[in-house]
Structures are given as structure tokens and as C-alpha cells.
Design goal:
This protein is of the alpha/beta class. It has eleven helices and 31 strands. The strands form seven sheets. A six-stranded antiparallel β-sheet has the order 21-22-23-30-25-28, with no helix packed on it. A five-stranded mixed barrel has the order 7-10-8-9-13, surrounded by four helices. The protein is globular and about 75 Å long.
């Protein structure tokens, strides 16, 4: 049996601001351990005895393509990166992945394991055990398998799945049930009723099915989405590890989630005409069965700061800290420092998150409201709502160290072999000082090397390019001066990254 991991890496994680931002969201961050959440998701399928696991397929926004490809490279886990030119929610994203997987010929209709890139699972052995059972079920039955998280609290932030009758397939020793119904996020009293009654599980967003089964379900439930995705893939191109779909065709695709488009229609209690398709004789026409397998593996969607506090290691007073943090007489505090010293005295049930350009202080009961702050930042057009001070590029990164009305100072690091675009600015000049490494500089018609402790000046309006020809990172300081210093004052003439 071959498992094809499909990692859905959409979403902006606004409730984890200021660490997570639209241009560099939470799935790309190492919130727990050294791996980013995306890397940890891929790594959960390592050392999976007895089951062959294909290289991962990451479905993501085009803007994150180079960062994701670099994170996979650092893991030594090459995979494909399926680029969505426009966000259309999870049902179209999975449909694109199923179409690509079906056309690749790998494994002759492999079992897809669909995983959000921004979830935490602390018990990998338990996770792999239930995935093994789900893979067996998805491979042998005309079924779409989902995993319900065994609830331990009346949580109002998750949707719920009600388990129905036991499912008669073969999934080893794992419990398996038909899906009776999906329930949207309940109020506190209803959530407590679900917990007391039993048979209700949190909706994890994890799924398993063959590509052919998913595409058949989409044909029955959302043929309009399927048709748009088919056209987008048919007209798409492949560029190394990047799979690009046609922008115009995908822009015409309706937006919908996996749950709304398909899963709710598979529930045994669903009163829809589509459900009657199960009774037909045609395998292609009938809807698959919806099956839920309970999962207890330390799962969290880390949707807000209080959720992160729950899964992080804590001291005897319930405090979870990271970075340069000092606490005195504090209890149940989450304190994260991105560089500067954070000191808390006499605090309880609060979240303190420090970054180079923003500090968040919130009560743990109000962390869902962080998105309101992000909305205000966007409404007032402040950069802190979208970008970090440190900005990643395919060639490396830069950090805006200081800025004024007519100047800006950046620390720039170019990875070995990295090449910035051949470009020009209308409104600013630049002074480059090499701190370590060697820079290859194109300035007008001249090409020359700049070594450590040397500098060069790029006048306004001059075509220029910066490259790192060495084997070590190139670190330099850039001082910009001029009447306008925005990133949109870049005229590109050549770019190896296709921007």
C-alpha cells in the first residue's frame, strides 16, 4: 500500500499574531520544537513501518512556494508543491491534489492522507497506528475516512462529528463508525451535552481516501468545482518541484470547504437527494461512505494562544515560556520572547508575546479576539498586520533594522548561490557594506566582487544586481536614502525566481 501525503498549507493564522502574519503564517513557524509546523506535519510519517509513503504534496499559496520548498530541502524530504494562484478553500485544494495524484500514476490510485499543515500531534505512534487503520479502510472500501478527536473538554471552538453505527469494514483493531452528522461549533451548554452523551468527536480536518473516490464524490456533490479544477490542471504547467495550475480557470472555481462540499452529505443522517445516490448500482455514481475513526494522540489545531499554552511544556506553576523570559510570582502564563528580555511579575492567565516590531499582552480568555487587532491594523494600513520586520525571500532574507523619513537600514543575508533580481529604483539610492562573505555586484555595465569590510554605492536609477557566488552566507548592511523607500519601488528586468 502506498500513502500519498497531501498537506494543505493555506490560512494566515491571524489569531497567533504577532508571530503569525499573512506574509509568513503559523505553519511556517517553529512554534513547538525546532521544526516548523509544516515540517513537523511531514515528519509524522517518517519511520512508518510496513507502509510505503510517497514524497509529500504540499498545496499552498504561490507566495509561500520558495519558503516551503526550502523547508522541505532542509529536511531532506523532496516533494511537489502544488500552487494555488487564488485561495478557494479546502475542497478545491483537495480536488487539485487528487487530480494531480491520479495523473501521476504513482501507486495506481494511492491512498491520500490529507493533513492541515498547522496542527500539533504529540503522540506520533498513536497517530500512525490510527492512520494505518484508516489506510486499510480507505484502500478496501468505497469510503472517505476522517479522524475524530476524542474530546476532553466542552470545547466551543471546534466543530463536532457524531458517530453512528459501527462500520463493518476491516480496519484492524481500531474503532470505526459511520458518520451520523456534522455539527457546527456549539455554545458551551451544547458542547457539555455532547461531552456527557459520548459518541461525539472534535472535527480534526484529517482525511483519507483514494483520489478516484474523492473525484467521484465531487462529481456527485460539486460538479462545478470539479470541472473548474479539471480545467485548471489541464492547462497547468510543471516547473521542477512546482506544479502550477491555470489562474483564469481556477479563479472561476467556487469556494467551499471539504466538510460542506462533501462530508456533510455523506453523513448517515443527511437528508439530501445526493445521499440517495448510495443506493444506485453504479460505482461511479454512488456516494462513498463517510467513516470516522476516533483519534487520541495529543492533537491541537493551535488556533489561538491559549491552545498553544495547553500543548507546550510548563513549570510547576503552569507557566510556559520561550526565549529570554523572567517570571516572578506568576501562574498559568504564556510568555514568548523573540529577542528582548520579557519580565512578568504577579501575572496569572495572561499571554505575552514579544517580537522585534510588536508586543501582544492578552488575557488567555480573550485570545480569540487577537484577530480583531489584526483587522484594525489592516484597516489602518499598518505593515505589522501582514509582514514581519524580518522578511524571507527565495534568495535569503532581510531585516529592517531602522527607518526614518528619508532613510532605511537593512541587514541582508543571501544564501550561497542566491541571486537577487536585476533591478532599478526610481526614488532611492543604496549603499552596500559587506560584513561577511563575498558579493558579486552588477552596477550598470560593470560586474565586480566586494569582499568583507568593503562597500559600493548604487546611484538612483542605476540597474544593479546582488549575488552570492560563495559557499557561505553573504551578510551585508544596506543603507537606503531617497524620497520614497517602499518595496514597490522595484523595476525588475531579470529574475531567476520568476517573480
Amino acid at each position: 500500500m502506498l500513502i500519498q501525503p497531501v498537506v494543505l498549507s493555506g490560512g494566515s493564522g491571524t489569531r497567533l499574531w504577532p508571530l503569525s502574519r499573512e506574509k509568513y503564517p503559523k505553519q511556517l513557524l517553529p512554534l513547538i520544537g525546532d521544526d516548523s509546523m509544516l515540517q513537523a506535519t511531514v515528519r509524522r510519517l517518517e519511520n512508518f513501518s510496513g507502509i510505503q509513503v510517497a514524497p509529500p504534496m504540499i498545496v499552498c499559496n504561490e507566495e509561500y512556494r520558495f519558503v516551503i520548498a526550502e523547508q522541505l530541502r532542509l529536511m531532506g524530504r523532496p516533494g511537489s508543491v502544488l500552487l494555488e494562484p487564488i485561495g478557494r478553500n479546502t475542497a478545491p485544494a483537495l480536488t487539485l491534489a487528487a487530480l494531480v495524484a491520479a495523473r501521476s500514476g504513482a501507486g495506481n490510485d494511492p491512498v491520500m492522507l490529507v493533513m492541515p499543515a498547522d496542527h500539533v500531534i504529540t503522540d506520533v505512534d498513536a497517530f500512525q497506528g490510527v492512520v494505518r487503520a484508516g489506510a486499510s479502510l480507505a484502500a478496501s472500501e468505497h469510503a472517505i475516512v476522517t479522524f475524530g478527536i476524542t474530546p476532553d473538554a466542552p470545547e466551543t471552538g471546534y466543530g463536532y462529528i457524531q458517530a453512528g453505527a459501527a462500520f463493518g469494514g476491516n480496519a484492524g483493531d481500531a474503532a470505526q463508525f459511520e458518520i451520523a452528522r456534522f455539527v457546527e461549533k456549539p455554545d458551551a451548554a451544547t458542547a457539555q451535552q455532547y461531552l456527557d452523551a459520548g459518541g461525539y468527536y472534535w472535527n480534526s480536518g484529517l482525511f483519507m481516501m483514494r483520489p478516484s473516490v474523492w473525484l467521484a464524490a465531487m462529481k456527485s456533490c460539486r460538479a462545478d468545482i470539479l470541472q473548474a479544477c479539471e480545467q485548471a490542471v489541464e492547462r497547468g504547467t510543471t516547473d521542477g518541484e512546482f506544479v502550477r495550475v491555470d489562474r483564469a480557470a481556477f479563479a472561476a472555481c467556487p469556494a467551499d470547504s471539504i466538510d460542506y462540499a462533501v462530508m456533510e452529505r455523506l453523513a448517515a443522517g443527511a437528508d439530501t437527494d445526493a445521499r440517495l445516490l448510495r443506493g444506485t448500482d453504479s460505482t461511479d455514481a454512488r456516494l462513498p461512505r463517510g467513516v470516522v475513526l476516533p483519534l487520541s494522540a495529543g492533537w491541537s489545531d493551535v488556533g489561538a494562544w491559549d491552545a498553544l499554552w495547553r500543548v507546550l511544556p510548563k513549570d510547576d506553576a503552569g507557566n510556559a515560556v520561550a526565549g529570554d523570559v523572567l517570571l516572578y510570582d506568576c501562574r498559568d502564563v504564556l510568555a514568548l520572547s523573540g529577542g528582548r528580555l520579557v519580565a512578568c511579575i504577579g501575572m496569572q492567565d495572561v499571554v505575552v508575546v514579544e517580537t522585534p516590531d510588536a508586543i501582544l499582552v492578552a488575557h488567555k480568555d480573550r485570545t480569540q479576539d487577537v484577530k480583531k487587532v489584526v483587522e484594525q491594523l489592516k484597516a489602518t494600513k499598518r505593515n505589522e498586520g501582514q509582514t514581519h520586520r524580518k522578511v524571507y525571500r527565495p534568495w535569503g532574507w532581510y531585516d529592517s533594522v531602522d527607518t526614518g523619513s528619508r532613510f532605511q537600514v537593512k541587514r541582508i543575508v543571501v544564501k550561497p548561490g542566491g541571486t537577487l533580481s536585476l533591478q532599478m529604483h526610481h526614488h532611492r539610492a543604496e549603499h552596500w557594506i559587506v560584513v561577511s562573505g563575498t558579493a558579486k555586484v552588477t552596477k550598470g555595465d560593470s560586474v565586480f566582487l566586494v569582499s568583507e569590510n568593503e562597500s559600493t554605492f548604487i546611484p538612483l536609477g542605476t540597474q544593479h544586481r546582488l549575488e552570492n557566488p560563495g559557499r557561505l552566507p553573504l551578510e551585508m548592511i544596506e543603507v537606503q536614502s531617497g524620497s520614497y523607500l517602499g518595496e514597490d519601488d522595484i523595476v525588475r528586468f531579470e529574475d531567476v525566481y520568476g517573480r
